[in-house]
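Re: that backbone. Tokens:
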């Protein structure tokens, strides 16, 4: 019995993130991505107060002020490009602001299975990036 229990632990750990999503049906893909990939620096509410923010050279920006700083319009394209790695943010430096688009592309084979096409990979990455951008847009201060 002990061997069976020990064998099931790694399986349970790999299913945990999916289980968390299923348990909280109100959590969107974007929120899950944000909490998994961004909150460590930007904070759970996006205010730049995450536990790792102090370790960054210039701290982490308050993501809730992006729309206000852009004349009241949320900068969708710029946020998308930053997350995808197409724009380097001044003050962040390459090792601090990770390009999540690259990470999503590297995860695609495992998520999509052995018979995915290049179009499937592009769609997989695009959906995750856009969901994250949409969630950050929802964090904007009123």
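Recovered sequence:
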């Amino acid at each position: 019995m002990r061997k069976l229990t020990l064998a099931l632990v790694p399986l349970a750990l790999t299913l945990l993130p999916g289980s968390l999503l299923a348990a909280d049906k109100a959590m969107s893909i974007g929120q899950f991505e944000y909490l998994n990939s961004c909150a460590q620096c930007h904070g759970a509410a996006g205010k730049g107060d995450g536990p790792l923010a102090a370790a960054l050279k210039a701290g982490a920006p308050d993501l809730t002020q992006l729309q206000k700083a852009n004349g009241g319009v949320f900068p969708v394209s710029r946020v998308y490009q930053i997350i995808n790695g197409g724009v380097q943010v001044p003050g962040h430096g390459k090792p601090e602001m990770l390009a999540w688009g690259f990470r999503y592309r590297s995860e695609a084979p495992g998520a999509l299975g052995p018979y995915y096409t290049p179009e499937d990979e592009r769609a997989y990455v695009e959906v995750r990036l856009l969901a994250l951008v949409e969630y950050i847009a929802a964090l904007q201060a009123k």
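Residues 2-23 form the longest helix (22 residues). Residues 28-138 form one domain.
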